[in-house]
Amino acid sequence: MTADPPVDLAELYRTHHLQMVRLARLLVDDTASAEDVVQEAFLGMHRNRGALRDSRAAVGYLRQAVVNQSRSMLRRRRTVRAHLKVAEPEIAPPADSEVILAEEHQEVLRAVDQLPPRQREVLVLRYWSEMSEAEIADALGISKGTVKSQASRAMATLAKIMQGGETDGSV
Q1: Is residue 171 part of a domain?
Q2: N or C terminus: which one in the chain shows less Cβ crowding within 10 Å?
Q3: Residue 86 located in a structural domain
Q4: 115: which DSSP letter?
Q5: In 48-131, which ranges are continuous DSSP H helix?
Q6: Count of CA atoms in the C-beta half-sphere (13 A) of 164
Q7: Residues 6+ apart with CB under 8 A from 62
Q8: Coil, helix or strand at residue 133
Q9: What is the pTM of this model?
Q10: How many CB atoms lie within 10 A of CB 128?
């Protein structure tokens, strides 16, 4: 029986970096933070590459690391904002943002941003990353049933938001 070849991190980076940045961008809502999240995930993979037994699982490991790093970043943001003494200044969106996405897509993204974190993660992984329920459950460390219920609740909440209804965040 031959052992799997070691993970080629350079090749993994070349083939999956952009995809992981896009995933993180949808979860943390800004490109610079998304790039930091992905960088940390790759660094973690580099530090622990000896522990990765199956090189074919490297992409799944990386995706899970990106989701976990995104969660950590969002927790840190909440903590910082909770302790800020002064209000943060309004930051205008980039000038080209209107060109990049059609208004309809922007409305959907704004609605997705209003979802609770777990629901947002499930939808991003399901519809953007095109992952199966089992893959999502594995990446998020939850059961397939939880994936299904979170996706269902998220879609119901999105429909309500898109129809102009207010949500109280408890859906």
Answers
A1: no
A2: N
A3: yes
A4: S
A5: 58-83, 97-100, 103-113, 117-123
A6: 0
A7: 12, 16, 20, 41, 42, 45
A8: helix
A9: 0.59
A10: 15
- Residues 126, 60, single domain; the answer is no
C-alpha span between 76 and 35 (Å, rounded):
16
The domain containing residue 59 runs over which residues? 1-91
Residues 6+ apart with CB under 8 A from 141: 64
Residue with the two structure tokens 């969002």:
74
Token code pair at residue 46: 């580099």
The number of helix segments (H) and strand segments (E) in the chain equals: 8, 0
Tell me if residue 80 falls in helix, strand or coil: helix
Give residues with Cβ within 8 angstroms of 13, minimum separation 6: 42
What CATH code is carried by the domain that includes residue 146?
1.10.10.10
Residues 120-144: tens digit of each pLDDT = 888 888 888 888 888 888 888 899 9
102 and 84 both lie in a single domain: no
Q: Does residue 149 fall inside a structural domain? A: yes
Tokens of 171: 């859906």
Place of tokens 């965040």: 169
**74 lies in the same domain as 113:** no
